[in-house]
Specification:
This protein is α+β, with helices and mostly antiparallel strands. It has one domain (30-105). Helices cover 22% and strands 32% of the residues. The protein has 1 helix and 9 strands, in the order αβββββββββ. It has one helix at 2-24, and strands at residues 32-35, 56-58, 61-65, 68-72, 75-77, 86-87, 90-94, 97-101, 104-105. A 3-stranded antiparallel beta sheet has the order 1-8-7, with no helix packed on it. The protein has a two-stranded antiparallel sheet with strand order 2-5. Strands 3-4 form a two-stranded antiparallel ribbon. The longest helix is centred in the N-terminal third of the chain and has 23 residues, at 2-24. The radius of gyration is 21 Å and the shape is globular.
Amino acid sequence: MINAVMKKPVMKNCALILVFSAFSMVGCAGGVYYANVPPPAVRVETYGPAPGPGYVWINGYWGWRGNTHVWVGGNWARPPRARAVWVAPYWERAGSRYRFHEGRWR
């Protein structure tokens, strides 16, 4: 009897964790999200020499956090494999909103 009573709260907690986990994934549509206003002009960044052979510079971009655009600074990165090409993130107009596509290695 005690085991049955103790299992109900555990099962309820597991179910709640599953539900909240699912809700936390809403908006994580493979690196695509939306803003109601267009991004500001791209910033021109200066950068020094690569930290080592094989590094490439990845330009910064305007991201969207909460209700505002935020600048995400550029950085040096090593391609994950030979001949990989960086596809820069970009914004596109989608109806009355703006859709953001995250950058990725191709």
